[in-house]
From TrEMBL:
UniProt KW Acetylation keyword: no
Lineage of the organism: Bacteria, Bacillati, Actinomycetota, Actinomycetes, Micrococcales
Claim: Transmembrane is one of the keywords in the record: yes
Signal peptide bounds: none
Membrane spanning residue stretches: 12-38, 58-79, 86-105, 111-130
DUF7144 domain ranges (all copies): 15-132
The name this protein goes by in its record: DUF7144 domain-containing protein
UniProt keyword terms in alphabetical order: Membrane, Transmembrane, Transmembrane helix
């Protein structure tokens, strides 16, 4: 099918888009995690967001580790790995859970940041479960 060969090699455009989007999502999680870890040592910042150093540290490390895993698995996704596809879907669900957790448990957590993170993860899930994407991974 000529339609399925519009991306990188024989990869559908949607899969290539998801791979790049997932890498960007992972990088964003790494940056956010790093910012929370930095904030955990700054009493003024913690006072502004009304959270404890322990909460900021836990969220920071969680976001950082998830970000690194997302980037590594995204590389596998771009290589056409079905297991990587499964892991990306799973990690996006965990990413949504992390943002919901932070909204509930971390006072002062940015609603805008959470909404962007959740929307980004949902977009990745939708793009990775299209008929063309599913067909591509089943052929591998």
């Amino acid at each position: 099918m000529a339609e399925d060969k519009q991306g990188i090699g024989n990869m559908p455009v949607g899969v290539a888009f998801v791979g790049v989007l997932s890498i960007l999502n992972g990088i964003a999680a790494i940056v956010i995690g790093g910012l929370w870890l930095w904030a955990s040592g700054d009493a003024d910042v913690l006072g502004e967001v009304d959270t404890s150093a322990d909460e900021a540290t836990i969220y920071g490390w969680t976001a950082l580790v998830l970000g690194v895993i997302i980037v590594l698995v995204s590389v596998g996704l771009l290589r056409g790995s079905r297991f990587a596809r499964f892991l990306v879907l799973t990690l996006m669900v965990l990413r949504i859970g992390a943002d919901v957790f932070a909204l509930i448990m971390v006072d002062g957590y940015s609603v805008v940041q959470a909404v962007i993170g959740i929307a980004w993860a949902l977009l990745i899930i939708v793009m990775l479960t299209t008929r063309k994407a599913s067909s591509y991974f089943l052929q591998r």
